[in-house]
Design brief:
single chain, 141 residues, alpha/beta, CBS-domain, 4-stranded mixed sheet, 39% helix
Length: 141
């Protein structure tokens, strides 16, 4: 299954010049743990709830800081036609739980998460179990 089919197509985004306060409001209102910082439709950064928490002791007023000053720059991305196994490798290599999905021109088209990957693997294991049960009627787990 291509990663473009895994996560939501509607990605919550924010401009790099937005304040952290504005970004946190988006996190809360959209019920997400991250926003992708876009420039000309391409991911330039990612801001997670963890990034905000870690920035609190570094600033007297983190809410007034720009997203750009707190975000993770140049996030790892994955092509929308990549297979789920490539997503697993990318997550493993980067320790990132959220990977922006891009098309061939680098434009943001979605977001794949560790949760999406786990759900996809679970569905595939269900299909394997169904095949085994069909081919081996005497098999009982």
């Amino acid at each position: 299954m291509p990663v473009g089919d895994l996560g939501p197509e509607e990605v919550v985004t924010v401009d790099a010049n937005a304040t952290v306060s504005d970004a946190v409001e988006k996190l809360e209102s959209e019920g997400v743990g991250s926003v992708v910082v876009v420039e000309d439709g391409e991911p330039a950064g990612i801001l997670t709830d963890r990034d905000v928490a870690l920035a609190v002791p570094q600033s007297d007023d983190v809410a007034a800081e720009s997203v750009e000053s707190v975000m993770t720059e140049d996030p790892e991305t994955i092509q929308e036609d990549a297979e789920a196994m490539e997503l697993a490798r990318t997550i493993g290599e980067t320790n990132a739980r959220r990977i922006p999905i891009v098309d061939d021109s680098g434009q943001l088209t979605g977001m794949a998460t560790l949760d999406d990957l786990v759900a996809s693997i679970g569905e595939q294991l269900d299909e394997v179990a169904d095949t085994i049960e069909t081919q081996s009627p005497d098999y009982s787990p």
